[in-house]
Amino acid sequence: MGERIRRHIIFYGSVQGVGFRYRAYHAAQTYGVSGWVKNCFDGSVEMEAEGTEKAIDDMILAIEKGTFVRIENMSVRSLPLHGDYGFEIR
After folding, report:
1. pLDDT by residue (tens digit) across 31-67?
2. Are 20 and 59 in contact (CB under 8 A)?
3. Rounded to whole angstroms, how far apart are CA atoms 36 and 44?
4. Is residue 63 within 8 Å of 24, Cβ to Cβ?
5. Helix, strand, or coil (residue 13)
6. In whole angstroms, what is the distance from residue 76 CA to residue 78 CA?
């Protein structure tokens, strides 16, 4: 199945007002990723995602397929596992 990891990701680009968080929530449900997502004041979107590396990658690809979503850059760092269940929009 793969080892679980946790990533802190900040997405830059056309990521607010385009259904990004809604798509993230549904992609997380689809791929079994836990964590949270929220809009930031500077126009970026912040996320913590926990799951297998493949599940997190698949989730991000699903978000990118959004009609108006355009991810121009991502800042990614590893975090210790949190062990949370579910995914929430903050």
Report:
1. 999 999 999 999 999 999 999 999 999 999 999 998 8
2. no
3. 14
4. yes
5. strand
6. 7
* pLDDT 10s digits, 1-41: 689 999 999 999 999 999 999 999 999 999 999 999 999 99
Domain at 4-89: CATH code: 3.30.70.100
Burial of 71 (0-12, 13-18, 19+ CB in 10 A): middle
Instruction: Find the catalytic residue in 6, 7, 21, 23.
Output: 21
Q: Is 73 a catalytic residue?
A: no
Q: Give catalytic status of residue 7 as yes or no.
A: no
Catalytic residue among 4, 7, 23, 39: 39
| Token digits of residue 85 | 């269940």
Q: Is the pTM of this model over 0.85?
A: yes
